[in-house]
Design brief:
Blueprint (H helix, E strand, L loop, with lengths): L6 E3 L9 E5 H10 L7 E5 L4 E10 L3 E11 L7 E7 L5 H12 L3 E6 L11 H15 L6 E2 L3 E2 H7 L4 E5 L16 E6 L7 H9 L3 E3 L8 H15 L5
Parallel strand pairs: 1-3, 6-7, 6-11, 7-8, 7-9, 10-11, 10-12
Antiparallel strand pairs: 2-5, 3-4, 4-5
Helix pairs in contact: 2-3, 2-6
Length: 240
């Protein structure tokens, strides 16, 4: 039996009591690219927290059936649920945020539109979700972060139900994080290249969001998102 610990993705509906089935791109990748054979070991995630270890029992033209040997829960997942509410930027910068944010442990991505942001079509959500799944498989997580449809900043601000929230603002106090071990869910608001307006920052504060500074240097929006996320996850003990 050949051993290979690369993770595949299995649709949750294709997981049964004793086996699971790889279809479509995952099936083709296993058979055509990796040349998997009956008897080979294979690991797959369902994107909802389960890591399934199994042995290939059968290979057909359009699907691979894997007998389940062991199931692990929430492998590679942080305790803290961090939602990144990121202003949509032009180009492919949000692709990078989703990919790298998934790797470091962001739980969900909420694209937002702000007074200074450049509105992008919501049709990109499907592409962003695929990038999140690819990064989840690559980095060893078992839950795929959700990428929600874009909403206005004020709309999400009013509906957010986290334990604590931060908003990046260059005029704020230095970034000091305390007692994050008591928080189960945190939201991080990151603005566009021009930053949040004073009106938006004031509105956020009225909802209890804490303004934070990321330092003396001006960071691009995608850089600020990753730097702030790393700081929060590190302070919560999620990055070692």
């Amino acid at each position: 039996m050949r051993r290979d610990f690369r993770q595949f993705y299995v649709e949750p509906d294709n997981v049964r009591r004793d086996d699971f089935v790889l279809t479509a791109d995952e099936c083709r990748h296993a058979i055509k690219v990796l040349r998997k054979r009956v008897g080979d070991e294979l690991c797959a995630i369902d994107g909802r927290g389960r890591l399934l270890h199994g042995i290939i029992a059968r290979i057909d033209r359009d699907h691979v059936i894997v007998s389940v040997m062991k199931v692990e829960e929430n492998i590679g997942e942080p305790r803290l649920q961090l939602t990144l509410a990121q202003a949509i930027a032009k180009g492919h910068s949000f692709d990078l945020v989703v990919e790298k944010g998934t790797e470091i442990g962001v739980t969900a991505f909420q694209p937002i539109t702000t007074m200074r942001s450049i509105v992008e079509p919501s049709s990109r959500v499907q592409r962003w979700q695929k990038k999140a799944l690819a990064a989840t498989k690559q980095c060893g997580r078992s839950r795929c972060p959700l990428v929600f449809s874009p909403v206005p900043f004020a709309t999400f601000l009013q509906s957010d139900r986290c334990d604590r929230a931060y908003i990046a603002h260059e005029a704020a106090e230095p970034f000091h994080l305390k007692e994050l071990d008591k928080c189960a869910a945190i939201t991080l608001y990151i603005g566009p290249e021009g930053g949040f307006s004073e009106e938006e920052v004031q509105q956020a504060q009225e909802f209890g969001v804490l303004p934070i500074s990321l330092g003396k240097r001006r960071l691009r929006s995608e850089t600020a998102a990753l730097v702030a996320s790393i700081k929060i996850l590190h302070a919560a003990g999620e990055l070692g």
